[in-house]
Write a structure and sequence with these properties.
The protein has one domain: Cytochrome P450 (Cytochrome p450, Orthogonal Bundle), CATH 1.10.630. It is built from 16 helices and 12 strands. The strands form 4 sheets. The protein has a 5-stranded mixed β-sheet. It has a 3-stranded antiparallel β-sheet with strand order 4-12-9. It has a two-stranded antiparallel sheet with strand order 6-7. The protein is an alpha+beta fold. Helices cover 54% and strands 10% of the residues. The chain is globular and about 60 Å long. The structure holds protoporphyrin IX containing FE (HEM). Protoporphyrin IX containing FE (HEM) binds next to helix 13 and helix 16. Protoporphyrin IX containing FE binds next to helix 13 and helix 16.
């Protein structure tokens, strides 16, 4: 039990949760939290092992009342992220070809061209005004433009799609106002309608995009809702975490200008390791839950059927038993077996794409703006689950 040791509720508010995670890790491999009503796992080896444990599964509980949450509920309970075998296997098999490393490599030129376009726009904005928000003008645009282009969303719809996606994803945070709930429910409906229309249009007039390929796989999806739920998963998965990952990574580099200078001078050789370190250092998604479908014995602890286990991915990434000087941001760290993309059956399908985007965009930014500097203290997004910044104001030094 950890309640006497740390105030877990405060964790959601703090800027730096890692000292708290160290306390949890030191208490043992599985630590019961009364406040959160779940076991917490903060060690690397333990998180890695438990992510692969067949007794622990993802599970989505429909939100109530069912009539007002209907669309949000089916967008989740039909998406593969919240399913297990055999449905998860069937859907993952259908979506995997588009996200295999080979398929992602073929997107290289396209992702590079989008990175150049976005950085060129950013340079113009910085010429026009003294301060520009890096979240709005850089880290958001790339993931949204790339996933929209893969799916086949018309360019003029990208902005609206991003807003709906953000409003829907907000629903996964713990504390929500009634207004946020209403907005999130409406956004879920708008996404479902938009992708329903797009799928119908691609069925009659196929194009060279992923939605056209998916609607062609009639035998894979049990119905249109299942198809749409998994398209929305690709959209939400493809944007939020990477927006935050790029934002926290760039903040980390710009807060210590010598790190940004080092990257600008040496990106030819250190981009791949820098990107992994960005993903490790501040895992964009910090906590994922599993439910025990059987009693699970793990290193002397018994997780009873029905109990929840919270896997603290960011905490695992700072485990000193796995990483030397884990609290140092080291752009040359190698190997870097972080768990930011999770593990086991639900290992992030988009990991090769996220890596490609970050590896393309950061050198383009470094070449164009080596004099980039923070213009104000960046503002963190509240919450523990998603780790990122709301605004990162930058200027040219
Ligand atoms: C830095 C960027 C990203 C991070 C940190 C990240 C993280 C994660 C994590 C932790 C999971 C597994 C959750 C669990 O185990 O319960 C996951 C699953 C997933 N991610 Fe990502 N992700 C990123 C980018 C992307 C991108 C670009 C896509 C593109 C489509 C994507 C698509 C997905 C999908 C479809 C799943 C579900 C996989 C399954 O259930 O089998 N992600 N991601």
């Amino acid at each position: 039990m950890i309640e006497d040791t740390i105030d877990l509720q405060a964790l959601v508010e703090v800027d730096n949760p890692y000292p708290y995670f160290d306390v949890v890790r030191d208490l043992g491999p599985l630590v019961w939290s009364q406040t959160w009503n779940m076991w917490l796992v903060a060690g690397h080896e333990d998180a890695q092992a438990l992510l692969k444990d067949p007794g622990l599964c993802r599970s989505f509980s429909d939100r109530k009342p069912l009539d007002t949450w209907e669309t949000f509920n089916w967008l989740n309970n039909k998406a593969m992220l919240d399913l297990e075998a055999p449905d998860h296997t069937r859907l993952r098999r259908a979506l995997t070809p588009a996200f295999k490393p080979g398929a992602i490599r073929s997107l290289h030129d396209q992702v590079h061209a989008l990175s150049v376009e976005i950085v060129d726009r950013l340079v113009v904005k910085l010429n026009e005004s003294e301060e520009v928000d890096l979240i709005a003008e850089f880290t958001t645009l790339l993931p949204v433009w790339v996933i929209c282009s893969i799916l086949g969303v018309p360019d003029e719809e990208r902005h609206q799609i991003r807003i709906w996606s953000e409003q829907m994803v907000k629903m996964y945070e713990v504390h929500l106002t009634p207004e946020e709930i209403l907005v999130g429910q409406m956004a879920s409906q708008s996404l479902a309608d938009f992708f329903g229309d797009l799928a119908r249009s691609r069925r009659s007039t196929p194009q060279d995009d992923l939605i056209s390929r998916l609607v062609d796989m009639e035998e894979t999806f049990v119905d249109d809702r299942e198809l749409i739920a998994n398209i929305v998963l690709l959209l939400n998965g493809g944007t939020g975490a990477l927006i935050n990952g790029l934002g926290t990574g760039l903040t980390q580099m710009l807060q210590q200008p010598q790190i940004w200078q080092d990257f600008c001078l040496n990106h030819d050789t250190i981009t791949a390791t820098t990107v992994e370190e960005i993903f490790r250092f501040d895992a964009p998604l910090q906590l994922f839950e599993r439910v025990a479908i059987d009693d699970v014995d793990y290193r002397g602890h018994q997780v009873k059927r029905g109990e929840k286990v919270g896997l603290l991915l960011g905490a695992a990434n700072r485990d000193p038993r796995k990483f030397l000087h884990p609290n140092d941001f080291n752009m040359r760290r190698s190997p870097n077996p972080h768990l930011s993309f999770s593990g086991g059956n639900h290992f992030c399908l988009g990991a090769p794409l996220a890596r490609l985007e970050a590896q393309e965009a950061l050198p383009v930014l470094a070449r164009a703006l080596p004099q980039l500097t923070l213009a104000a203290e960046p503002q963190r997004t509240p919450g523990l689950m998603v780790r990122g910044y709301e605004r990162i104001l930058v200027s040219r030094a």
